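The instructor's notes for this session suggest beginning with a concrete chain rather than abstract definitions. Hand out the sequence below and ask the class to guess, before any prediction is shown, which regions might be ordered.
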Amino acid sequence: MKQLFSVIIVLLYGSLSAQKTPADFGYRHLKIDCKNDVADVIIQSKKGEENKKKPMLFWCQGSLPQPVLKYDEKGIYGTFPFNPDDFLTTYHLVIVGKPGVPVISDVKKLERDYTYRDSQGKTPKQYSEHNHLDFYVQRNNVILQRLLSEKWISDEKVVVAGHSEGSGIAAKMASENKAVTHLIYSGGNPYGRILSIIAQSRFYDSDNNTIEYWKAVVDNKNDLTSEESDSFKTTYDFSVPVNETIEKLKKPVLITYGTKDWNAAYNDMFYVEAIRKEIKNITFIPFPGLEHNYFPVNEKMEPNHQIYNWENVGKEWVKWLTVN
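After discussion, reveal the predicted structure:
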C-alpha cells in the first residue's frame, strides 16, 4: 500500500510539473514549413469565434531569444504587450516564435530576462544564424500567405504591426507583400538602429567606441557570428534606414513612439519631413514623456515600470484602425 501511495505521488507530481502546451492557455499552435525552418505560429482568437472569418493582425516581435508563451504557477504571462481583448472582436492575432527557441516555456527554465539558453547555456545556434532582417521578413511573408488560405482569415484587411526590432520587420513585410493593407510601426528608428545606439551613448557621455563599432559592423556586414549580443549582420540590417521605404507605401501607416525614446528625434524628423512632403497616408502619434517601451522616465532616463502605458497605446491603434 505504501509503495502504491508513492507511485501515485510521483505520477501526480509529474502531471503538475509537465510542460504546458499553447492549447492549455487557449491558443492555436500551427507548425508551418518555411524553407529550412519549421515556424511555430501562435494564434489568439476570441473564445468561441476561432472559426469565424476575420482579418488578421500579424504581430512582429522585438529582439531577444524569448519564447512567445511564458508561464509560471500563477498562469500565462502577457503574450502581446497591448491588451488583446481590444482587438479580438475584430481580428485574429498572430505571433511567430523565434528560430531555435521553444515556443512555450516555464519561466523557471529561462534567464532573468526571460531569454532561452540551450543545454550548454548558450544562445541556440539556429537562432544566431537566422536572427536577421531578411530571414524574418521572408519567413513571415510565407506564413502570412499560408494563413490567408485559411477559411477563418479574411484578406480584406491584413494588418502587420511591430515594435522596436519588430517595427523594421513589419515595415519591410508591408513593402514586399501586396496582401498587407495596413502597417503599424512602433518604437523603431526610421533612420536606423545604430543612430539610437549612438544617441544613448551621447546622453550618458560614454561613447564606448560606438562609431568604431559601426565601422566594424559595416566591414563585416554579412557576419552572423554571435555569442550573446547581436551579430554584425543583425545590427547592419536593422540599421539600414526604412524612412524612404515607408514613404513609398500607398497603404495606411501608423507610427507611434515615446518622446523620451532614444529614437524620438529621428521619428520627429520623419514626422516633419512627411508634413513637408504632404504625405497623407502616414499618421504619427508621439507619446509625451515616455521611453522605448512606453514607460515614463525621470531626468536620468530611468523608467518607472509601475506605470504601464501599453494598453493606452493599443487603444490608440484600435482607434486608428477603425477609421483607416
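Then share the key points. Residues 19-323 form a domain with the Rossmann fold fold (CATH 3.40.50.1820). The radius of gyration is 21 Å.
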